[in-house]
Each structure stands twice: as structure tokens, then as C-alpha cells.
Design goal:
This protein has 276 residues and is α/β, with parallel strands linked by helices. 39% of the residues lie in helices and 14% in strands. The protein is built from eleven helices and six strands. α2 runs antiparallel to α9 (239-248).
Length: 276
């Protein structure tokens, strides 16, 4: 298939990144290889969007530090970058709204900027993500605007089944309007989870499952646990991230108790909405 016939895709990963790990970065590479390998898509950009402090997850340190660590982790990447919009919001923002924000941002760029616009070009980079043809019409053509798709792990997909964590209408919008790229892990059965959900099964063609053949069980939770116990995290997180964590002593028993006893923002909001 010619490049002009392929759909440009932007991969968006939302999450705590507490801290960002090598596995988080690996998700982008796996998803890019898979999507490009279909012959139907061309991945042009990856975005890491750390959640704001209002998410209220236990052990969640300041978004300020989490954003800096993510930026350190991606500083040598030519296609993955960090976006701070979600992390700067005063209130917790639903994932579907973050997807909508980035899709509209891409549409606005395609509509109002010239062909050689640097909007999709990473600062300080010579390589451009893509150049899009512009028309005099104020409305951009859909095929000229990259599609934002949510990149996640199997745990996020399976969390769709946790009561009050997600709104059903939000899940539908995510899988129907944007699409999901899920990197599965050892011990998970994402295909079975989709099969057992009428809602996900209906939009299964817009859910891409990517199998990680090289087992990698790194998680932020295990990184924090190792740090609390004084164990090395070398080679589990990018070198600059490790140095930043050690310099600021970010993770310890005290930080792990942050937001203890507080319900997650989505659980609070969705349970309240259900009572109305």
C-alpha cells in the first residue's frame, strides 16, 4: 500500500507514570511496529500524558516530578514526546476528554497552518513527523489529519470491567471514535475479556491487540517497592530517570502513603453521578 493511502496515527498513552519505566517506552515501540506492519497505518507520533494530581491514586507523587521524569526518558526519542495539558488541569480529566483534546489539536493544526508548519515537529529536531497538504477550505480533510488512538496495557483494558471506574459511554466513545491499541502481557487474556464484553465485542475491529513475545514484567509499582527497600532499579528505568529519583529522593515509605484512604477521582465522580 502506498504511503498516501495509509492512515497516519498518533499513539496517546495516559497514566500515572509513577515513575515512567522502560516498559512504558517499550509499549510505544511495540505498538508502532504492529500498526506499521498492518500496511494500513503509519505511526507518526507518540504522546505521553501523565495524569494530574487530582487523580488521587495512592502513592502518586507530584505531577511536576512525573512530567520531568517522562521528559528525561524521552529526550532522545525522535517520535515520542510528553504533553503536559492533562497534568496541569486542576480537576481530574477523563481519558476520553484527553483523546478529544489531542484530536482537536491535530485538526486545528491541519486547518490553520501551512504545509511546512512546525506544529508536528518536535522542538530541536530536524526530522518532521509529517507534512500535510492544505486546502483553502476552513475544514480539513479527515484523511489528512492523523487519528489519535489510545495506547495501553492489558491492565487498562481489563479495568473497563471495574464498577464505577469507567463510564460505559466513555468506553464506547474510546473504542468507537478513536480506537485502542492494547499491548498484552503474560498471564492476561485480553481476547477473552473482549469476547465476554458485548460492548467491546461490538467494536472489536477497532481494538488492536499486540502480543509482547519478549516477556517484560516491569511495573511502576515494583519500581517503587524496590526503592522503598533500598534495592537497585538500574536498567529498569532510563538512566536519567534513576538519577532524578535518587537526587530528589522521590519514592519512600512516606510518599507511598500519599492519598491513602482517599478514593480515586473517577470512582468518586462516577459513583456520585450514578446516584443523581
Amino acid at each position: 500500500m502506498e504511503n498516501s493511502e495509509k492512515t497516519d496515527v498518533v499513539l496517546l498513552a495516559c497514566g500515572s507514570f509513577n515513575p515512567i519505566t522502560n516498559m512504558h517506552l517499550r509499549l510505544f515501540e511495540l505498538a508502532k511496529d504492529y500498526m506499521n506492519g498492518t500496511g494500513k497505518y503509519r505511526v507518526v507520533k507518540g504522546i505521553i500524558s501523565p495524569v494530574g494530581d487530582a487523580y488521587k491514586k495512592k502513592g502518586l507523587i507530584s505531577a511536576h516530578h512525573r512530567v520531568i521524569m517522562a521528559e528525561l526518558a524521552t529526550k532522545n526519542s525522535e517520535w515520542v514526546e510528553v504533553d503536559t495539558w492533562e497534568s496541569l488541569q486542576k480537576d481530574w480529566v477523563e481519558t476520553v476528554k484527553v483523546l478529544r483534546y489531542h484530536q482537536k489539536k491535530l485538526e486545528a493544526s491541519s486547518c490553520y497552518h501551512q504545509r511546512d508548519s512546525p506544529v508536528l515537529e518536535r522542538p530541536g529536531r530536524k526530522r518532521k513527523w509529517a507534512e500535510y497538504s492544505q486546502k483553502k477550505s476552513p475544514e480539513p480533510k479527515t484523511k489528512d489529519v492523523p487519528q489519535v488512538k489510545l495506547l495501553c496495557g492489558a491492565d487498562t483494558l481489563e479495568s473497563f470491567g471495574i464498577p464505577d471506574l469507567w463510564k460505559s459511554e466513555d468506553i464506547i466513545k474510546i473504542v468507537e471514535d478513536y480506537g485502542l491499541i492494547c499491548v498484552t502481557r503474560s498471564g492476561s487474556d485480553a481476547q477473552k475479556f473482549i469476547y465476554e464484553s458485548d460492548m467491546l465485542w461490538k467494536y472489536q475491529n477497532n481494538i488492536h491487540l499486540v502480543h509482547e513475545w519478549i516477556t517484560n514484567d516491569i511495573s511502576s509499582t515494583k519500581i517503587r517497592q524496590a526503592l522503598r527497600r533500598g534495592h537497585s532499579i538500574r536498567y529498569l528505568v532510563p538512566e536519567h530517570v534513576q538519577a532524578y529519583i535518587e537526587k530528589h529522593n522521590l519514592y519512600n515509605s512516606e510518599s507511598e502513603e500519599r492519598n491513602a484512604g482517599v478514593s480515586l477521582a473517577p470512582l468518586q465522580r462516577n459513583s456520585m453521578d450514578a446516584k443523581l
